[in-house]
Amino acid sequence: MLISKFQNYPNFKMENQLIIDSLNKLYNEKPTEEKKIISNSQGWQNLNNNETTYKGSKVIAPDQTLDQIWSDNGLDFKAKPTKIFYKNHKDELIETTEYQGIINNKTGQLLNIPKNSYTILQLATIKKVIEQVRDYLAVESIINIDSKRFVINTYIKGCIADVKKDDPIKRRCTFITSMDSSVGFTLALLDWRMFCFNQMNSVRQSQNMSFKHTASIPHLVERLPRALDLTKHTFKEDIETFKFMARSEITEQQAKETLKKLFENEYKNKIVILNRRTKEQRAKNVYDLVQTKPILENLKIEADQNGLTQYSLHNAITNYYCNQQQSKNIKCPSEASRIRTESNLYGKGKSIIDRSKELCLSIR
Q1: Residue 13 to residue 30: CA distance in whole angstroms
Q2: Which neighbouring-strand residues pair with 202?
Q3: If you write DSSP's letter for every residue of 131-196 in order, what string do you get?
Q4: Phi, psi of 225 (to 5 degrees)
Q5: For the chain, which terminus, N or C, has the lower number of CB atoms within 10 Å?
Q6: Are 46 and 65 in contact (CB under 8 A)?
Q7: Are 289 and 263 in contact (CB under 8 A)?
């Protein structure tokens, strides 16, 4: 039972800042030698600059059991619904009829105050899914944000292969969920370039694996093992697609035209003010966008190393969104890293990366 007076509801702005501070602390942690050893065993390279394994997450040793992983990372609790009461002006306890409280049954921490229609997805359900496919699914790293939001990175054993010599891609299965309604449940099947930590694309089977917290969600999550089994068998086909991209040469002009298509919505029918006093203006173009210059610089580096190909262009784009993008008003590198990670997992960055692959493949 939760008891509250209306005037004493939490200061959500302050609570959000505490979550951001907690996230930034996680993302600022430096890679230890133990983390480097574990990540090296998982296939990652360039271990001093790892945004996807270190920042914001705790890496998992390969010999840990699921029970140990859940316990060591604070996942072994049950989110328990409870009634909410408030005191009126007569100091009488009145039960709310539309909302419920969600608490951590181990610590008593208040996790959420959602409507009664909200259905909890217990972390034990995700654990059950992983247990069913444990023979070929390994837990790689975990982000636990104040026991309210969770990112569980796993990878499919055997789903790692070279696109070019010493340039491997690895398939990850990332479970994303929350107890505070900040995100629904998503299983993102993602391919990652191992050297530069570029998120290459989301696998098509993952397109329909995002569920809101409704009554059907536990049943939907329990169906996921079959989808994971399917994606294991499609990995070779997807690697062949990347190899085709690595063989497909393009021109510099084709690369620029592809960027125009990719970012068209950001400049089309918009203007640039040249002089506010005289009101002189011109049409906005792709070269006015903040991302265009660094992407073209990335492309030059990729082209020098691997040739000017569809694959080089896609990597130039994904490198920007995975490692470089940062708003001017975000001064803290760790906060910028966190924002990039979340955008690429379930936000705008994910859509751009997927669109990039489609457009690069279409270059003729």
Answers
A1: 29
A2: 190
A3: HHTTTTEEEEEEEEETTTEEEEEEEEEEEEEEEETTEEEEEEEEEEEESSSSS-EEEEEEEEETTT
A4: -50, -35
A5: C
A6: no
A7: yes
CA 289 – CA 262 distance, rounded (Å): 12
d(CA 24, CA 56) in angstroms, rounded, equals 8
pLDDT one-digit tens code per residue, 89-108: 888 888 888 999 999 999 99
In terms of average pLDDT, the best of 47-56, 268-277, 287-296, 317-326 is 287-296
As a residue count, the chain comes to: 364
Give the C-alpha separation, 48 to 68, whole Å.
27
What pLDDT, in 10s, does the model give residues 184-218? 888 888 888 877 667 787 765 555 466 666 666 67
Cβ-based burial of 156 (10 A; exposed 0-12, middle 13-18, buried ≥19): buried
Residue with tokens 């600022």: 28
3-state secondary structure of 65: coil
Decide if 98 contacts 165 (C-beta within 8 A). Answer: no
Angle among Cα 59, 64, 69 to the nearest 5 degrees reads 65
Task: Tell me the backbone φ, ψ of residue 317, rounded to 5 degrees.
Answer: -70, -50
Buried b (16+ CB within 10 A) or exposed e, 209-242: bebebeeebbebbeebbebbeebbeebeebbebb
Locate 288 and state its tokens.
């006015």
Report the interhelical angle of 224-247 vs 348-362 (nearest 10°).
50
| Dist CA 299 CA 209 (whole Å) | 33
Hey, what long-range contacts does 260-263 have (CB within 8 A, 24 or more apart)?
A: 260/286, 261/359, 262/317, 262/352, 262/355, 262/356, 262/359, 263/289, 263/291, 263/292
Are 321 and 288 spatial neighbours (Cβ–Cβ below 8 Å)?
no
Beta-strand ranges (E) seen in the chain are 2-4, 58-59, 79-82, 84-87, 93-95, 101-104, 110-112, 137-145, 149-164, 167-178, 185-193, 198-202, 210-211, 271-275, 280-283
Strand ranges inside 210-267, DSSP E:
210-211
